[in-house]
Amino acid sequence: MTGRTGHADLPTGAGGVDDAVTAALRDVDRRGFLPRSGRRWSAADRPIEIGHGQTCSQPSTVAAMLRLLAVPVGATVLDVGAGSGWTTALLARLVGPTGSVLGLERHADIAAWGAANVRRTGTTWARVAHATPGVLGAPREGGWHRVLVSAAATRLPDELVDQVARGGRMVIPVRHVMVLVTRDDHGTTRASEHGTYSFVPLVED
Q: What is the pLDDT of residues 12-57, one digit of tens each?
């Protein structure tokens, strides 16, 4: 998952998406998604190591990504680089039981741990799975309403752009820049940049 951003404070929203993200961050305890050695720092706005060079992202980074993603209730969401399952659980809170979330993690042991962490939240509409080797994302007929990528790509991957549904959004760091990709109802995609961050690398092949 991700590293850090320079923004240390958790922003609070005046309504809509902001309020939903703030509520999700308050309701889903990060401590339950950390190894024992890192739990004492669960409230700190910093990334925390979870093994294999991966981290559980710092809360302000996650908040910024979720606000850009603008997740609606009932959405189908793909969470690439799910790690310990914290972002998957947050996304589950945002979509509610009428939506669905699939988290993918390339390290099998972290994926199994993340899956167990998410199961403990009782959000049966969300799960973490081991990513299929050689496959980026999870191609799905009609695409995903939202795609969250928590690892840095060296380029904007066409494979993931193609998995964004019409009317959908993807948030992905490309090198050190946070990129928002939107697809309109006619299928046209646009990309915009939203600040610089540091992430672990996305395995793209």
A: 333 456 689 999 999 999 999 998 988 988 888 888 888 888 888 8
Element (H, E) at 28: none
Q: Which of 160, 139, 150 is nearest to 90 (CA)?
A: 150
- For the chain, percent helix, then strand, then coil, each to nearest 5? 30, 30, 40
Which contiguous run of DSSP H or E holds residue 190? strand 189-196
| Domains within the chain, CATH numbers bracketed | 17-196 (3.40.50.150)
Say whether 198 is catalytic.
Answer: no
Q: How far apart are CA 205 and CA 187, in angstroms?
A: 26
- Please tell me whether the overall predicted TM-score, pTM, comes out greater than 0.85 for this model: yes
Length reported for the chain = 205
For the CA atoms of 64, 155, 191, 66, the dihedral, rounded to the nearest 10 degrees, stands at: -20
DSSP class per residue in 47-109: -EEEETTEEEPPHHHHHHHHHHHTPPTT-EEEEES-TTSHHHHHHHHHH-TTSEEEEEESSHH
CA angle 196–198–204, rounded 5-degree value: 105
Give bridge partners of residue 127 from the DSSP assignment: 102
Q: Which of 37, 42, 57, 84 is catalytic?
A: 57
